[in-house]
């Protein structure tokens, strides 16, 4: 399978600020399921991320994935007309744009290291990246948790969500249910090490049909200044508000997994060609060409 790879001018290093976690940061993450880092990016670094990501999104045009239909198929969402108005979503930009790949890999010594320390793992690989841009007056994003959609099963997958512009209450910032990842973990052990798959639709309350105990759970809005980031467990229940403004709310995300994850049969972002080569319970995601290492502890 071939696809065009494009690039932009060489990066200016470093691509993130140097960040060190404290024991309190790690304990808070494991209790609440998320950790916010203000000013992950300096103003000049932010401008570089914006230039690279916006260029790649524009170049991808209307293609969500790297390939045009019919190979491009959404395996996560329902109510597609509604979901298409939640945000502009471009997945695995690193596979089609060398500048994005370089940006992500250069960020690994900070972003990957933070992810590894928060989850207590030694190696972090990229599962996929995605640019998420809430367009003017876009719909809210329903409550969900991430790992249930992915092609591997893990209690230690994690995402970073980087605000490329200010994320506010008015334009659709993230919302979390602190501690809800523990509910999902308990369900996992009670369900023979599996996660229920809840499609992302237009009803914010759909998740409560599976997890009724969360209906009274406290929630928290997480507005962030441009250049700030939040790390959240792939088990954490989260969503986002609507964009009630005439401006865009852009973000760049990286979905990360531990090393040597085993294929569980779900297609998610995988192409049919990839699916045909994988064996459930046997095939391992450890190919650097498909899932590059973002960080590995020495």
Task: Describe the model.
By secondary structure, the protein is an alpha+beta fold. It has one domain (23-285): Jelly Rolls. 23% of the residues lie in helices and 21% in strands. The protein contains seven helices and 13 strands. The strands form three sheets. Strands 1, 2, 3, 5, 8, 10 and 13 form a seven-stranded antiparallel β-sheet that branches. It has a four-stranded antiparallel β-sheet with strand order 4-9-6-7, with no helix packed on it. Strands 11-12 form a two-stranded antiparallel sheet. It is globular, with a radius of gyration of 18 Å. It starts with 22 loop residues before the first helix and ends with a strand. 42% of the residues are buried. The model is unreliable at 68-72 (pLDDT under 50).
Could you give a quick summary of the protein structure above?
With 298 residues, this protein is an alpha+beta fold.
Number of domains: 1
Radius of gyration: 18 Å
**Beta-strand fraction estimate:** 15-25%
CATH topology: Jelly Rolls
Total strands: the figure is: 13
Which segments are poorly predicted (pLDDT under 50) over 5 or more consecutive residues? 68-72
Helix content: 10-25%
At the fourth CATH level, what is the homologous superfamily?
q2cbj1_9rhob like domain
CATH class: Mainly Beta
CATH architecture: Sandwich
What is the terminal-to-terminal distance?
34 Å
Tally of individual helices: 7
Structure class: alpha+beta
* SSE pattern, N- to C-terminal: HEHHEHHEEEEHEEEEEHEE
């Amino acid at each position: 399978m071939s696809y065009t790879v494009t690039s932009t001018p060489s990066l200016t290093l470093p691509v993130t600020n140097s960040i060190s976690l404290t024991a309190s940061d790690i304990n808070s993450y494991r209790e609440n399921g998320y950790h916010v880092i203000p000013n992950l990016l300096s103003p000049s670094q932010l401008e570089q991320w914006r230039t690279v990501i916006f260029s790649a999104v524009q170049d991808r045009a209307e293609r969500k994935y790297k390939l045009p239909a019919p190979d491009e198929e959404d395996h996560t969402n329902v109510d597609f007309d509604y979901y298409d108005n939640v945000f502009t979503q471009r997945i695995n930009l690193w596979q089609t744009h060398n500048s994005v790949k370089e940006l992500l890999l250069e960020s690994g010594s900070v972003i990957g290291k933070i992810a590894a320390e928060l989850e207590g793992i030694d190696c972090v690989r990229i599962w996929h990246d995605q640019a998420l841009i809430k367009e003017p007056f876009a719909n809210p994003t329903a409550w969900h948790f991430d790992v249930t959609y992915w092609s591997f099963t893990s209690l230690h997958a994690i995402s970073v969500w980087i605000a490329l512009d200010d994320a506010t209450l008015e334009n659709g910032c993230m919302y979390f249910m602190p501690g809800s990842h523990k509910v999902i973990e308990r369900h996992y052990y009670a369900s023979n090490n599996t996660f229920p798959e809840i499609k992302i639709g237009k009803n914010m309350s759909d998740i409560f049909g599976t997890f009724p105990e969360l209906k009274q759970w406290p929630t928290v809005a997480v507005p962030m200044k441009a250049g700030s980031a939040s790390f959240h467990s792939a088990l954490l229940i989260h969503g986002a508000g609507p964009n009630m403004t005439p401006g865009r709310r852009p973000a760049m995300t990286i979905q990360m997994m531990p090393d040597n994850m085993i294929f569980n049969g779900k297609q998610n972002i995988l192409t049919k060609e990839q699916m045909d080569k994988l064996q459930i319970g046997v095939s391992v995601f450890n190919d650097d060409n498909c899932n590059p290492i973002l960080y590995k502890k020495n």
